[in-house]
Amino acid sequence: MNQTPPPAQAVAENVRAALAEDVGSGDISAELIDAGQQADARVITRAEGVFCGRPWVEETCRQLGGRIRLTFAVEDGDRVEPGQVLFTLAGPARDLLTAERTLLNFVQLLSGTATLTRRYVDLIAGSGASLLDTRKTVPGLRLAQKYAVRCGGGQNHRLGLYDAFLIKENHIAAAGGIAAAVRKAKALHPDHPVEVEVENLDQLAEAMEAAAEIALIDNFSLEDTRQAVSVSRGKIKLEASGGIDEQTLADIARTGVDYISSGTLTKEVSPLDLSMRFQD
To answer: Does the global pTM surpass 0.70?
Structure first.
């Protein structure tokens, strides 16, 4: 499992934008507290799940002056249980109060993504299929959410429009067909993988004939998915997508596809329920 965080600069940019929109010209509520007052706090989870977001917590505290001392009881990718302490904070009370919402927002969202991913990964365990995310991410937080997917045991699809071809229905229509689109893709960027979205078995045959590396079989029935697996062995990788949920996931995985992609992992996330409380 690749749990390498995004580049430090990307994390810093995420946090800078979050603090700017939350703190603005200054935290006037924190001004109610004496500037010299020190405090201890802990963050707990009220639900089971998978923890994710440590780099964003650390960066939030760093950007607020680096006076907050952090102690983590868990690492990104760890399963957590209700009532469990995730990390503690100690430092100026004002800093803790200002940091609270920003760091919780990051951890709640990313832990929610990691939690859902782990649930999906567990459902297809032993099938041989890999779970992929998509580009359906919160704007500005793509690298963060894709990191959370990895922490949950999933794998990343392409990061953006620049690192792999995904030739979809409109590309095919505008380029003059599957063969023409694949041929041009290989001529333009021969070092980039070429994937073609297909809507039926005839288009799958065209994608194989054109020597695409991967076919995204979109909204195929289970029977058509089985046929696709049967005819594609050793010729092209298959990625199942479209209309996939917890009820259909395992059945699709058992057909023998190589990958299953789901936008749900990053666009229909229930944030993990967390709480930060000062200690007496």
So the answer is: yes
CATH number at residue 34: 3.90.1170.20
Q: Which of 101, 119, 135, 226 is catalytic?
A: 101
Residue indicated by tokens 């067909």: 177
Identify the residue whose tokens are 């333009």: 188
Active-site pick, 42, 136, 254, 267? 136
Read off φ and ψ for residue 63, nearest 5 degrees: -70, -20
CB 217 within 8 A of CB 239: yes
**Is residue 101 flagged as an active site residue?**
yes
Is 135 found in the same domain as 263? yes
Which single residue is written with the structure tokens 């832990």? 111
Among 224, 181, 182, CA closest to 201? 224
Confirm whether 168 is a catalytic residue.
yes
> Residues 179-229: pLDDT tens digits?
999 999 999 999 999 999 999 999 999 999 999 999 999 999 999 999 999
Told to judge if 246 belongs to the known catalytic residues of this protein, a careful annotator would answer no
Q: Cα–Cα–Cα angle for 64, 70, 74, nearest 5°? A: 130
Residue 3 lies in a domain: no
Domain assignment of residue 132, given as a range: 124-267
21 half-sphere exposure, CB direction, 13 A CA radius:
8
Q: How many domains does the chain have?
A: 2
With respect to residue 149, please indicate whether it lies within any of the assigned structural domains.
yes
**CATH code of 175's domain:** 3.20.20.70
In whole angstroms, give the CA distance from residue 248 to residue 241.
11
Residue partners of 127: CB distance under 8 A and separation at least 6: 250, 253, 254
